[in-house]
Design a protein that fits this description.
The chain is mostly helical and 134 residues long. Helix content is 84%, strand content 0%. α3 packs across α6 and α4 crosses α6.
Length: 134
C-alpha cells in the first residue's frame, strides 16, 4: 500500500511537471527554482495540485484554462508577477495578444478600471519583452 501511494505521488508530480513545462515553459521552471531554497515543499505543492491535478483534467483545453486564469489574476488586482507569467503562458497555449488584451479589458466591468489598467500594463511589459527577444 505504501509503495503504491508513493508511486501515485510521483506520477502526480511528474504529470504536473510536464504540464507546467507545457504551459509556462521557462518562466514556470524559474518560479519553482526560486522556491527551492525557501520552501521546496511549497514548490512541490504548486506542481502537484494546480498542474498535476487541475490543469491535467480533460474537460477544458489549455487555452480556455489560461483565459480563466488571466481573468482571475486581473480581477485580483494584486498578483502582477503571476499575471505576467500567465500572460506568457496564454501565448504559449495559442492565445493571441488581442485575446489577452480583450480578456483583461473585460475585467474592467467586474473588477474595476484600476485592475484592468494594471493588467493592461502587465501585458504591455510582457509583449515588449517578447518583441525585444525577437
Amino acid at each position: 500500500m505504501h509503495q503504491n501511494s508513493n508511486a501515485s505521488i510521483n506520477e502526480r508530480y511528474q504529470r504536473g511537471w510536464e504540464k507546467l513545462r507545457e504551459i509556462d515553459g521557462e518562466a514556470g521552471e524559474k518560479v519553482i527554482a526560486a522556491l527551492a531554497d525557501i520552501a521546496p515543499d511549497f514548490a512541490r505543492y504548486l506542481i502537484e495540485f494546480p498542474f498535476g491535478d487541475i490543469y491535467s483534467r480533460p474537460q477544458l483545453d489549455l487555452k480556455s484554462r489560461e483565459i480563466a486564469v488571466l481573468a482571475a489574476l486581473t480581477a485580483l488586482g494584486n498578483a502582477t508577477p503571476q499575471l505576467k507569467v500567465h500572460i506568457q503562458a496564454a501565448l504559449n497555449v495559442a492565445c493571441t495578444r488581442e485575446e489577452v488584451t480583450e480578456v483583461i479589458m473585460q475585467m474592467a466591468v467586474y473588477a474595476g478600471f484600476p485592475a484592468a489598467l494594471n493588467g493592461l500594463f502587465a501585458a504591455k511589459e510582457v509583449f515588449a519583452a517578447l518583441d525585444a527577444e525577437a
